[in-house]
Amino acid sequence: MIEFQDVTLELQGRLVLDNISFRIHQGDSVLLVGNSGAGKSTIMKLILGLIKPTAGKIRIFGEDITRLSEKKLLKIRQQFGMVFQGGALFDSLTVEDNVAYFLKENLRMTEAEIKVRVHQTLEFLGLSRFLNYFPSQLSGGMVKRVAIARAIVSKPKALLYDEPTAGLDPISARRVVELIQHLQEKFGTTSLIVSHEIHYFLETARRMLMLKGGTIMYDGEPNLDILEYFDETDGITPVHQLAG
Question: What architecture does CATH give domain 29-53+81-243?
């Protein structure tokens, strides 16, 4: 479904990714970890075709997107749901309108069809009573849940999560993680989760990729022992802190 083959990326003379290769199959739930600036969010941009690699191939749904026009790339992007780190909700729109925004802008649906789809999604996520709220009236955890609602309302083939628990207190973070796990179990949607908080996703992700120094250092089952490769300056919680 998602395949990087010998991908190298240089930005402003800096080697960001060095000849990396990996595959994410349909239904996979993958956790991508790495220190700050390692290129985790860059990989998401590459998947969406927002930037092109210096070398190598990126296949999405079997098609090499490095050769596609912007028009064809748009069709690829519409098959992904994206949850941004800060939620990225529109402050001037209600919860209902935020969730409906993609449907109105990208899909040929009537207003009635959009309303039904949005209300079903909000009800499924336990957000029905917040549909007339504005983002400023919501907690950080609620903003993330609304962002997830917006990401899944179009019924995408894959979901991309960029630091979904960042800035949340432990209780709110756990609720977001449980929601991600619930979506995975119910729909089997392919998920790529970028996070430096590995401990939250040990049970949610089936596989973990560790990115460091521009290369994939580890590809296997989620494992806290991998934190030994990092220290406090890397922005990832070290093992000895988790133990405490």
Answer: 3-Layer(aba) Sandwich (3.40)
Tokens of 49: 């075709």
- DSSP-assigned states of every residue in 123-186: HHTT-GGGTT--GGGS-HHHHHHHHHHHHHTT--SEEEEESTTTT--HHHHHHHHHHHHHHHHH
**Residue 201: partners with Cβ closer than 8 Å, 6 or more residues away:** 31, 177, 193, 195, 222
Q: Put the strands of the sheet holding 29-34 in their side by side order.
A: 80-83, 158-162, 190-194, 29-34, 207-212, 215-220
The model's pTM is: 0.87
Whether 204 contacts 230, CB under 8 Å: no
Is it the case that residue 229 has pLDDT exceeding 70? no
Token duo for residue 36:
């700050």
Q: Are 43 and 17 in contact (CB under 8 A)?
A: yes
Q: What is the pLDDT of residue 112?
A: 95
In the chain, what are the domain boundaries?
A: 29-53+81-243
- pLDDT band of 47, cuts 50, 70, 90: very high
